[in-house]
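Thread amino acids onto this structure.
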């Protein structure tokens, strides 16, 4: 069957009498993915728990915010459900209906580089070792790649290792991956040819740092400028061809745990119920979510994944590893088509200085990237560390201002912006890695935090973690007596007598891999920028890269919060507005710089209009938005959100959930982290094509 451009393999062996997710009636809508027109005039608003809930299509939004459960109005309803065995039971609410279940050997949450690589490697091992395992991938985007955003200058070493295990590679029939990517996705992998690292000044000047002074990890010889969203589509096709079942448009909403025994274990995930109105009432289209149960569940959701964060909290994985809190940056990106005379294939440029830093002591961590990808694309963006202090700083406006610098403007003049998006990325590095395994599953890729902020790359680490996870899982599930007879691929269901395993070999093998070596080498660099500003950070990074190479016998301690207590989170880094002056940003010209809502349309963002908001205020901090965020910090969420989700008209918080591009920034930078980011109905969100 075909779903969102990816063929889904069906298995005849599934429990509960169903063959695939589509058989349950669960569905998602992608046929009318359009940004709401700004010319619409209908508008109305309601009040819930003191928060304004706006429904105004003039602003491309659906707003529904409630502190209490959105389902409380369903308790007096009644329905009946005909089960698979033709018996009939009565339920007080459609939400009390039992969920259908599907069993797999391995369930993977997230169809990005880490999850897809794990699925591919497992299936490669099935072919080479002769014992088959059933594997499925859940992807909340409407298609594989639609929620993927990255710079991206790509280090291919992990991908090349993965592809070396394909049968055609082993037989010597090896077409280079760059060629098959072009054939499959009409997307070029452009070899990096020229590196430039500039320091920009506010007056319009720039100074290039000689390449021999740069850390070796910033040298891009042998790397490629790519679209990561296109690469994941390419990997999706490969995974499907090997027999992986891919379900795009289905959002993993809940982690499922075993209920027997004294030790909790993950047994799978449940997809989100669909067909619930913004008023909490079940609509005619209501369908219960589906349970996907796995002998192992691999979480590869990317940075700040909702299920991954629940797992980290449930099993105290940071405390178990004695890890620091994770820190994040917000990456904002545009893709431009430029005239031939402006295009320099393979050109790679990074910058520090303007607009984020004006002196060597500035502590705003961040910088820019600008890459030329064939046939005529310029990929440009700004990354802002979310541990900045000034609540008036607006990352989107800083990005627009950055484009006006002569060293940047010259690459874009005469061109056309064709896509816009944003996503958070991990910056904590080695010191922030949690324990990777737990009973029943593991964390992969950016869900764990495998990103090298100095190298400005994480995709290669994500793919390698997928390879290592797959090999560890395959060995665990296929070892022992009668291993083949115990597989779901053979039995059609999980053996009731089998308890979920904790595959600790994955963590052990990752610690021995080049990923840990790479992250350990630059483990203190982020903290150096945080403590000493851009000048001290650059100096320390240079020493670490050229002299100590990660062998320094010390660890720079993590900062404490603004009160001198506890861990210094990105949220607690924000200081009261009274310490700063508002920043006046220039108006957009509509040619080089753009207002936010105009750019938002280029992301293709859409959500089903009639559903509860997926951005939920935590009940225990319900007073924070208007009493603390607005009064103390001058409403920083109205500036740091790169999609215009949060605003305070007339002093009341309005949440424009329809605008959300799933960057996860709000769950990180909000004062007291008052937002709980949950998944909306599957298929909603951005529709990235060339990111």
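Threaded sequence (691 positions):
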């Amino acid at each position: 069957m075909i779903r969102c451009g990816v063929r889904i393999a069906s298995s005849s062996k599934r429990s509960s009498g169903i063959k695939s997710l589509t058989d349950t009636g669960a569905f998602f809508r992608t046929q009318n993915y359009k940004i709401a027109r700004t010319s619409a005039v209908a508008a109305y608003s309601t009040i819930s728990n003191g928060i304004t809930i706006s429904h105004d299509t003039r602003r491309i939004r659906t707003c529904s915010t409630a502190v209490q459960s959105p389902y409380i109005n369903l308790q007096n309803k009644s329905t009946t459900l005909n089960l698979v065995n033709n018996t009939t039971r009565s339920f007080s609410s459609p939400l009390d209906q039992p969920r259908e279940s599907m069993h797999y050997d391995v369930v993977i949450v997230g169809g990005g580089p880490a999850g897809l690589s794990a699925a591919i490697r497992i299936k490669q091992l099935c072919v080479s070792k002769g014992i088959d395992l059933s594997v499925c991938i859940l992807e909340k985007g409407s298609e594989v790649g639609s929620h993927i955003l990255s710079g991206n200058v790509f280090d291919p070493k992990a991908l090349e290792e993965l592809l070396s295990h394909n049968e055609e590679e082993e037989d010597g029939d090896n077409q280079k991956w760059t060629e098959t990517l072009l054939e499959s996705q009409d997307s070029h992998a452009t070899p990096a040819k020229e590196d430039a690292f500039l320091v920009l000044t506010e007056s319009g000047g720039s100074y290039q740092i000689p390449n021999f002074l740069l850390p070796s990890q910033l040298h891009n010889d042998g790397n490629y400028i790519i679209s990561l969203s296109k690469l994941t589509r390419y990997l999706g096709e490969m995974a499907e061809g090997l027999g992986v079942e891919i379900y795009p448009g289905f959002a993993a909403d809940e982690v499922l745990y075993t209920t027997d025994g004294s030790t909790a274990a993950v047994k799978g995930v449940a997809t989100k119920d669909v067909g619930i109105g913004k008023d909490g009432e079940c609509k005619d289209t209501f369908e219960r979510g589906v349970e996907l149960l796995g002998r192992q569940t691999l979480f590869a959701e990317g940075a700040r994944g909702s299920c991954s964060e629940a797992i980290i909290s449930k099993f105290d994985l940071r405390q178990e590893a004695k890890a620091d809190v994770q820190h994040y940056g917000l990456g904002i990106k545009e893709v431009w088509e430029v005239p031939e005379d402006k295009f320099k294939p393979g050109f790679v440029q990074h910058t520090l200085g303007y607009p984020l830093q004006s002196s060597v002591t500035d502590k705003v961590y961040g910088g820019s990237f600008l890459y030329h990808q064939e046939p005529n694309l310029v990929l440009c963006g700004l990354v802002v560390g979310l541990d900045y202090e000034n609540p008036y700083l607006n990352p989107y406006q800083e990005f627009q201002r950055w484009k006006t610098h002569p060293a940047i403007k010259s690459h874009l003049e005469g061109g056309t912006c064709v896509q816009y998006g944003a996503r958070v990325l991990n910056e904590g590095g080695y010191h922030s890695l949690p324990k990777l395994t737990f009973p029943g599953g593991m964390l992969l890729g950016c869900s764990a935090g495998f990103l090298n902020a100095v190298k400005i790359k994480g995709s290669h680490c994500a793919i390698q973690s997928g390879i290592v996870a797959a090999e560890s899982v395959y060995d665990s599930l296929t070892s022992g007596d009668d291993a083949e007879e115990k597989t779901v691929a053979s039995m059609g269901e999980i053996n009731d007598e089998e308890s979920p395993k904790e595959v600790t070999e994955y963590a052990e093998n990752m610690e021995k891999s080049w990923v840990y070596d790479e992250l350990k080498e630059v483990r203190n660099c982020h903290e150096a920028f945080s403590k000493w500003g851009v000048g001290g950070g650059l100096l320390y990074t240079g020493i670490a890269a050229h002299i100590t190479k990660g062998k320094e016998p010390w660890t720079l301690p993590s900062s404490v919060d603004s009160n001198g207590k506890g861990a210094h989170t990105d949220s607690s880094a924000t200081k009261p507005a009274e310490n700063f002056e508002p920043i006046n940003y220039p108006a957009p010209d509509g040619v080089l710089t753009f207002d936010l809502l105009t750019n938002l349309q280029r992301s293709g963002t859409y959500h089903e209009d009639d559903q509860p908001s997926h951005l939920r205020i935590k009940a225990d901090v319900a007073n924070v938005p208007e009493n603390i965020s607005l009064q103390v910090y001058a409403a920083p969420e109205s500036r740091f959100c790169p999609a215009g989700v949060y605003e305070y008209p007339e002093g009341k918080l309005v949440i424009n959930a329809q605008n959300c591009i799933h960057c996860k920034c709000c769950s990180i930078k909000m004062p007291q982290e008052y937002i709980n980011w949950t998944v909306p109905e599957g298929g909603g969100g951005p529709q990235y094509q060339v990111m």
